[in-house]
Specification:
By secondary structure, the protein is an alpha+beta fold. The protein has a single domain, classed as 2,3-Dihydroxybiphenyl 1,2-Dioxygenase, domain 1, CATH 3.10.180. It is built from three helices and eight strands. β6 (98-105) and β7 form a beta hairpin. The chain is globular and about 40 Å long.
Length: 143
Amino acid sequence: MTVSLRLHLVTLGVEDIERAARFYETLGMKRRVRNANGVAFFDAGGTIVSLYGRDDLARDAGLDSTAAGSGSLTLAFNVDSESAVDEALDAAAKAGGKILKPGYRVFWGGYIGYFADPDGHVWEVAHNPQFPFDEHGRLALPE
């Protein structure tokens, strides 16, 4: 498999998810998956913006949340299987990235891992069986 890096989801680490969600809703973004706990998802016209607790995001990626900017922003892309997560992480490492956290199963039923690019930008690679791809390779959020 050749990894074709695509941006599907931008996760913003925030202090207060509901306050941040109100801000983005006020700016006209449509919130989706309202029953998700501890995270808010928004349709951003082909890309998804999610809001997640800053400390939780840093912890998930294996970063120190006290470091300036650590875990405040994660770029993410989804793949169609758990093995594709591992393959993408391996490809990132071979390209000069640093594996922050190898692939692992998460409580919501997916499989994720984290890497940093050579400049330290954090990427999440995720297989989320609850967010299928459409015919154009974009994530399809359920209502």
